[in-house]
Amino acid sequence: MLRTHTCGELNMQNVGQKVTLCGWIQRVRTMGAMIFIDLRDRYGITQLTIRRFLNRDEFNEVNSLGREFVISATGIVAERSSKNPNIPTGDIEIIIESLASLEILNESKIPPFTIEDNTDGGEELRMKYRYLDLRRNVVRKNLELRHRMAILTRNYMNEQGFIEIETPVLIKSTPEGARDFVVPSRMNPGQFYALPQSPQTFKQLLMVAGFDRYFQIVKCFRDEDLRADRQPEFSQIDCEMSFVTQDDILATFEGLAKYLFMQEKGFAPGEFPRIEYDAAMREYGSDKPDIRFGMKLVELNETMKGNGFKVFDDAELVVGINAAGCAEYSRKQLDELTEWVKRPQVGASGLVYIRYGTDGTLKSSVDKFYSPDELKTIAGKFSAIPGDLMLIMAGKTEKTRTALGTLRLEMGKRLGLMDLTIFKPLWVVNFPLLEWDEASKRFYAKHHPFTSPVPQDIPLLETNPGAVRANAYDLVINGVEIGGGSIRIHNRDLQKKMFQVLGFTDELAQEQFGFLMNAFEYGAPPHGGIAFGFDRWCTIFGGGESIRDFMAFPKNNSGRDVMIDTPARISDEQLKELNIKLVNGEL
Ligand code: ASP
To answer: Do the domain assignments include residue 368?
Structure first.
């Protein structure tokens, strides 16, 4: 080794030892004739001190060592006179005795941004020089967390008898789910592989094969529009089990979640509550409720309709939330909030408020239609007390619930109720099996076409498919969907029925999923599974906002890797080999 120790491990116990460290220069400082160099590697920072011996030229030479130069330094560990309690190596320094003890291993250009926790580099610049960004503590720590989470996951899964099996990356495009990334096949002109959106069908085939408990930390690919919590390639902890019920799966993976919490954070949340999808929508206006705070939706049809206020009388649903302690909101703040909910991202048509003044008087934006007594009854529905502000919306049921759910989150944020140190997991269960799409006039699988219906709802597949509940579940933590899965269909006839409901002809179902349906004729065990967004797990545990910060080399918002500059054109030669024809330079 070129070094005897790392820059993060020396302390008072090493005083007197001769050591050699290697690393990057964080900064060089002078004090009179003394020079201090902060030497950094991924383990920490150690101070090198050069005291006596330098003549002017040598002094200048050392003083001009640039930031990010890679050096090796040999010297004696000594106690520092002015200690730095903020770093583990702050009690000591390395005394360099001769110029020959400092060796430049490599020079560095001046980095385009400072390698500090609070860097001056903007997002794009840091993405372009990601390898420099990765030298920063904050980013490096995120990847260290990610590594620990992967190891812990593997430990737990291994202990529970799961085996990790790799599934292929070059697979077949399927019409359900998100858009596929495709790869042309040179050897099969005109034909394409698709990159997996998930190993779903393979893990089910592994159950048919009798593997019983499978998992994999696996890259998945989805060609979707990007957001802070989406990347075109991301990692899942993908799992499948045989001979299990929904309860067994929830218990097993509640175990995984608790194990990760315990090992990484030193505490674990208690029982994870379970809530039906319908109740989640009704009470929180979201299928991934943040239950760090209450502020549940209060339905007001019986209380507020029929008073001549047309907007409410015509609405399918009148519903509100109680923003505790917000009665003092000014007119300007309320107008701003009203504008906020009208933005297309929220989609409400308006906002009605009732102020419960600290003097006990109730004042609303629709006073004309409600007497003080009626306002009192309404406030009672909210369990409001003086000082509270009730915010009410009306319209189509689903849309209004969702819009109010969004406002609930916003108010939670404004009121400081989203404490990053608190973790509130819950299971949302029994999602709808199908989703109607008005444009194509057909049902789509809400989860995927292999999800089984709740058994007692199976007859509804014939009569009222929209009402069928899926035997499916999501794990949600602090309003983020961390994972989801389902008990699968393992019966060929039911799977065939499902494809029919989804509008697949027998031929198309055979062409797309024949391999799975055929496999089901050879003794498919009852099975089910789940997949967790591994990047999201890490982001939640690391208290971050974007999954990007927990990936080594993420893509930007347009799906580009600006460092390696891709996607990129390929040569005409390559295109020809792939049998892809360009017309006037275009595909
Ligand atoms: N394959 C599913 C997904 O990626 C998860 C599952 O059902 O296990 O969402």
So the answer is: yes
Q: How far does Cα 259 stand from its chain's mean position? A: 19
Q: For 305-344, write each residue's pLDDT tens digit.
A: 999 999 999 999 999 999 999 999 999 999 999 999 999 9
Whether residue 382 is contained in a domain is answered as yes
CA angle 130, 131, 137 (to 5 degrees): 90
Cβ(483) – ligand 1 distance below 6 Å: no
What is the total count of domains within the chain?
A: 2
Domain residues for 47? 12-106
Q: What is the CATH number of the domain that holds 71?
A: 2.40.50.140
CA 427 to ligand 1 center in whole angstroms: 15
- Which of 386, 418, 450 is where one domain is finished? 418
C-beta of 533 in contact with ligand 1 (< 6 A)? no
Q: Which secondary structure element, helix H or strand E, spans residue 481, and what is its range? A: strand 480-487
Alpha-carbon separation of residue 356 from 309, 322, 416 (angstroms): 20, 10, 21
Low-confidence spans in the chain with pLDDT less than 70 = 175-176, 228, 585-587
Per-residue confidence (pLDDT) for residue 587, from 0 to 100: 65
Give residue 228's pLDDT: 66
**323: domain CATH number?**
3.30.1360.30
**40-56 pLDDT per residue, tens:** 999 999 999 998 777 88
Task: Return the best residue to mutate from 171, 180, 200, 444 for the ligand 1 pocket (most ligand atoms within 8 A of CB).
Answer: 200
452 Cβ inside 6 Å of ligand 1: no
Tell whether ligand 1 has an atom less than 6 A from the beta carbon of residue 395: no
Q: What is the dihedral angle through the alpha carbons of 444, 447, 451, 453, rounded to the nearest 10 degrees? A: -70
